[in-house]
Specification:
CATH superfamily of the largest domain: Gcn5-related N-acetyltransferase (GNAT)
Number of strands: 14
Order of helices and strands: EHHEEEHEEEHEHHEHHEEEHEHE
Strand order of the largest sheet: 1-2-3-4-5-14-8-13-12-11-10-9
Largest sheet: 12 strands, mixed
CATH topology of the largest domain: Aminopeptidase
Helix content: 25-40%
Radius of gyration: 21 Å
Bound molecules: coenzyme A
Length: 364
Amino acid sequence: MHSISIDELVLPVTAGEQTAAGAAFRAAHEHGERIGVERYGPGLASLTLEERLAAWQSSDAEQHRKRVVRDGERIIASSSIWLPMLESTEVGDHGVAAEASLAPETRRALIEALVDDAERVAAEHGRTTLMGGSPAAASGAVMASTGFGGADPDEPEAAALIARGYELEQVYRMSVADLRGLERGERPLDARWADASARAAADGYETIAWSGPAPAEHRPAMRALHEAMSVDAPVGGLALEAEVWSDERLAEFERQKTAGGRTMRTVVARDRASGELAGFTSLFVGSGDVASQHDTIVTRAHRGHGLGMLLKLANLVELRRHHPTHPRVRTMNAEENRHMLAVNEATGFVPVAYEGIWQRKVAR
Ligand SMILES: CC(C)(COP(=O)(O)OP(=O)(O)OC[C@H]1O[C@@H](n2cnc3c(N)ncnc32)[C@H](O)[C@@H]1OP(=O)(O)O)[C@@H](O)C(=O)NCCC(=O)NCCS
């Protein structure tokens, strides 16, 4: 490959649209599917065209830029650049991918070029804290600054970031639970859920489940829980600020996350005495057979009653009841987040892949 040309992907209005933008988007979707299979195996990261179009849209909270490299009609490499717009506005977060079928030297050259390009885009937006991603592992020659998880410095994405002065701040573990396996285990889901509910009830808590947007009566509490999530979930040394959630932001989040046809299922734990919401968990159910776990939090005042486990189990019971076509759930957790991983491991989640998040600060 002699010269590398990187283009901005302009999203079409609809996924099936018969325009140049529609065709380019569909080529980028095919590339995204191939990358998903290479990284996570078949089915785990697969999306429909509509889901991907929704996932790639910008929102008031975050702008998303997509850059692509073509080989004829086919897209062979790409990057995403995410620009937070409400807080953490110094941050430009990017992820690059070049297909594994490419010759190794071509692949490395594309990754290098895409990282330089992503940094240029971030700089155009005045971003001085750059974040990048790479495949990672439970341990590696480069350890995360959290002390949990590592990366291989020769892996092309990691190598490009290291060469530019990035440091590995955090490693995330993707894990998957298979409800069919849990049912065959020593304690089936219903028995474990009953235990967790009995313990919570004895301590004065109950659960409430819904699908779709949060009901009006719970919206102020859900905003506060999302704000707590941005502070309490570990971010290692990443320069991410506390988030402020207006009702408009909550509504936009709910709209965007379900725009491609996904269903959002939420369970909250309520302190019966005060009526206060002590925590929540959400998952998204779309195409394929794998539901996607989203946030889980129990606020500090209510920890230590097993509510994290209760919320998880309750939502798995909801999933089994309403979406029997989705027996698997995938989740991403920071490798140092022992409290969340303890709950997930006990629930039956098994690691399948790791991703590193790297950071470098540039002088203004
Ligand atoms: C993961 C989480 C929901 C677990 O909370 P929980 O269900 O109340 O946890 P448990 O009831 O199993 O608590 C067991 C013990 O660990 C303690 N504990 C739980 N989470 C803790 C935390 N984040 N920090 C310090 N201690 C914690 C509890 O107080 C309890 O201590 P005790 O035995 O002395 O009473 C909670 O840690 C949390 O909300 N974390 C922040 C949000 C987060 O990281 N979400 C996941 C992002 S992927």
